[in-house]
């Protein structure tokens, strides 16, 4: 599959990947990446900027929102405002905040206020994952987007081992009863996501299931 040659890169703060409550859909994840991409440009021009403006049609096109009305966009933005994010520092300190502080539609534009933690991360530009929005747009599976983000976070080194519990937290499946069995995780999450990543993106990904005794951990 030929991807668009034009690269639109977003340097995404790694802290914002840790979703601590609620599930985020693939469209919502893509929309948030587009929001960060545009906000980076705006805050670079004006470090004091609090409110960020987006052309609704452009945001919908890049996030893959196909509905012609804005009802679905409103629901996706509303969901992003409800989702909590957690950052944990080396000294044990932590911060909890939402992906979006507030949002307002003004005719053909969307005005968004980001939490101060995210706005400062965009300004400092000190710890980022580089994501290609045009590649992510071509990924259809929610878990493919999540694992692609994970791979790009560690693109210069080996992805660390993840406990099954950590992997379920990463993919938002902690409370999904059908994923108690690792074989279901393998068949429904890992293998379809990796196959799509290998087919549609610029990286090749593989995994190894590690056992402690007889149990995959």
Strands, helices and their partners?
Elements: E1 9-13, E2 19-21, H1 26-45, E3 51-55, H2 56-63, H3 71-82, E4 84-88, E5 94-98, E6 102-106, E7 109-113, H4 116-124, E8 128-132, H5 133-138, H6 142-153, H7 164-171, H8 182-200, E9 211-212, E10 215-216
Antiparallel strand pairs: 1-8, 2-4, 3-7, 4-5, 6-7, 9-10
Helix pairs in contact: 1-2, 1-3, 6-8
Structural class: alpha+beta
Low-confidence stretches: 1-6
Order of strands, widest sheet: 2-4-5
Count of extended strands: 10
What is the element string, with H for helices and E for strands? EEHEHHEEEEHEHHHHEE
Distance between the termini: 35 Å
Number of helices: 8
- SS strand fraction: 15-25%
Oligomer: single chain
Question: What would the principal axes of the Cα set say about the shape?
Answer: globular
Taking all Cα atoms into account, the compactness measure Rg is 18 Å
Percent helix range: 40-55%
Mean pLDDT: 81
* Largest sheet, strands/sense/barrel: 3 strands, antiparallel
List keywords for this structure.
single chain, 217 residues, alpha+beta, three-stranded antiparallel beta sheet, 8 helices, 10 strands, disordered N terminus
Verbal overview:
With 217 residues, the protein is an alpha+beta fold. It is built from eight helices and ten strands. Strands 2-4-5 form a three-stranded antiparallel beta sheet. Strands 3-7-6 form a three-stranded antiparallel beta sheet. Helix 1 (26-45) packs across helix 2. The longest helix is centred in the first third of the chain and has 20 residues, at 26-45.
